[in-house]
C-alpha cells in the first residue's frame, strides 16, 4: 500500500471498525489490552516529572491513555497518518495526517517517544532517524511490536482467506451487480447463489466470520433494495467491496510489518543506521496464554 491508500484504509478503520479494545484481535482476546496496559504503565513510571511524550501511529490514543492514567503530569501528543481520528482523550493532544517519517517537531522536543503496533509499519530507517532527532539526550523510545509467530498475524491471515473467498472465489459483488441488470426485465428475486452464500460462508469458516459478513451484506443489499433504484443498490455494493478491500490492505501491511521485526539482525542494523540502539526486548503474553502476541522494546538514541 502507498501512503495515500494506507491513510484511507486506517481512516476507515478508526471511523467505522475500531470497536474492540483488542485492536487487531477478536473479542476472544480481550486480555491483550490488560497485558499492553501493564507494559505502558510500568514504562510511564520511569519517566521524568512533566515528561513530554510523543506517541507515533497513535490511532485511538489508547497508549497515551494508559500512560496518562499512571502519570497525570505527563504532556502527551499523538500523531497518526490517518486523516480522521477519534476525538483525543482528555489531557492529550492528537494530530492527524502526520507520517512518522516526517515529524513536525523541533529537535530534542520530547523526553520519550512511544509506539504500539505502529513503528514497524513505517520506513524503519527514516522513522528511527526522526525519533533520534526529536528525542532529548538520554530519552527513550518504547515500542510494542508485532510478532510473525503470534496470534494477531495468524488470525488476520485467516480473515484474509475468508474475505478472498467472498470477493474473489465466489465473486459475490460481481454476481450481485449482474443480477441488477435483470431488474429491467422484471426479475427482482435474489439469485440463489447469493441467497445461499451466507450459510455456505458460515459452514466453511464459522458463524460471523468475514466470509459470512460479506455474503450476508451482499444478500441484504439485494433483498432490502428490491424496491429501491438500481443506482442506490450499486452504491451499497461498492461500499461493501471498498471496506473489504481496505481490510485486505491493512492485513497486507500487518504481514509486511511482522516480516520487518522477524529478521532481528536486519531490524537492529536498520534502526542503528537511523541512530538508535535496542537496550532491551521482552515478550508480551496475554494472561492465561502461552504464545507471545508482541514484543516490548526499549530503544535509545546512539550518541
What's the short story on this structure?
The protein is of the alpha/beta class.
How does this model look, in words?
The protein contains 11 helices and 7 strands. With 303 residues, the protein is an alpha/beta fold. Helix 1 packs across helix 10 (230-262), helix 6 (172-181) packs antiparallel against helix 10 and helix 9 packs antiparallel against helix 10. Mean pLDDT is 90; it is low at 13-23.
Question: Could you outline the blueprint of secondary structure elements for this entry?
Answer:
Blueprint: H1 3-17, H2 31-44, E1 52-56, H3 62-70, E2 75-79, E3 92-95, E4 110-116, H4 124-134, E5 135-146, H5 151-169, H6 172-181, H7 192-195, H8 197-205, H9 210-224, H10 230-262, H11 264-273, E6 276-284, E7 294-301
Parallel strand pairs: 1-2, 1-4, 2-3, 4-5
Antiparallel strand pairs: 5-7, 6-7
Largest sheet: 7 strands, mixed
N/C terminus separation = 34 Å
Tell me roughly what share of residues is in helical segments.
Answer: 40-55%
Low-confidence stretches: 13-23
| Class from helix and strand fractions | alpha/beta
* Neighbour order of strands in the largest sheet: 3-2-1-4-5-7-6
Order of helices and strands: HHEHEEEHEHHHHHHHEE
Strand content: 15-25%
Judging from the principal axes of the Cα atoms, what is the shape? elongated
Tally of DSSP helical segments:
11
Rg over CA atoms: 22 Å
Quick one: how many beta strands? Answer: 7
What is the residue-mean pLDDT, rounded to a whole number? 90
Amino acid at each position: 500500500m502507498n501512503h495515500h491508500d494506507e491513510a484511507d484504509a486506517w481512516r476507515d478503520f478508526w471511523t467505522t471498525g475500531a470497536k474492540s479494545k483488542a485492536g487487531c484481535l477478536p473479542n476472544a482476546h480481550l486480555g491483550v489490552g490488560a497485558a499492553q496496559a501493564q507494559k505502558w504503565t510500568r514504562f510511564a513510571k520511569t519517566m521524568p516529572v512533566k515528561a513530554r511524550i510523543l506517541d507515533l501511529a497513535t490511532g485511538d490514543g489508547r497508549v497515551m491513555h494508559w500512560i496518562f492514567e499512571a502519570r497525570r503530569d505527563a504532556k502527551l501528543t499523538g500523531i497518526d497518518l490517518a486523516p480522521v481520528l477519534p476525538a483525543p482523550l482528555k489531557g492529550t493532544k492528537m494530530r492527524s495526517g502526520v507520517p512518522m517519517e516526517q515529524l513536525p517537531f523541533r529537535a530534542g522536543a520530547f523526553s520519550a517517544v512511544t509506539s504500539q503496533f505502529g513503528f514497524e509499519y513505517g520506513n524503519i530507517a527514516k522513522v528511527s532517524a526522526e525519533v533520534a532527532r526529536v528525542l532529548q539526550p538520554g530519552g527513550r523510545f518504547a515500542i510494542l511490536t508485532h510478532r510473525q509467530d503470534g496470534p494477531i498475524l495468524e488470525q488476520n491471515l485467516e480473515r484474509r482467506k475468508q474475505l478472498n473467498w467472498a470477493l474473489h472465489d465466489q465473486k459475490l459483488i460481481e454476481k450481485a451487480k449482474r443480477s441488477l441488470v435483470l431488474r429491467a426485465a422484471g426479475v427482482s428475486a435474489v439469485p440463489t447463489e447469493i441467497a445461499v452464500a451466507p450459510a455456505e460462508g458460515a459452514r466453511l469458516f464459522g458463524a460471523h466470520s468475514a466470509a459470512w459478513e460479506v455474503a450476508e451484506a451482499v444478500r441484504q443489499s439485494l433483498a432490502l433494495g428490491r424496491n429501491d433504484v438500481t443506482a442506490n443498490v450499486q452504491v451499497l455494493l461498492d461500499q461493501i467491496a471498498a471496506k473489504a478491500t481496505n481490510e485486505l490492505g491493512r492485513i497486507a501491511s500487518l504481514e509486511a510489518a511482522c516480516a520487518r521485526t522477524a529478521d532481528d539482525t536486519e531490524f537492529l542494523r536498520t534502526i542503528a543506521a537511523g541512530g538508535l540502539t535496542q537496550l532491551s526486548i521482552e515478550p508480551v503474553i496475554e494472561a492465561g496464554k502461552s504464545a507471545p502476541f508482541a514484543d516490548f522494546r526499549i530503544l535509545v538514541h546512539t550518541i
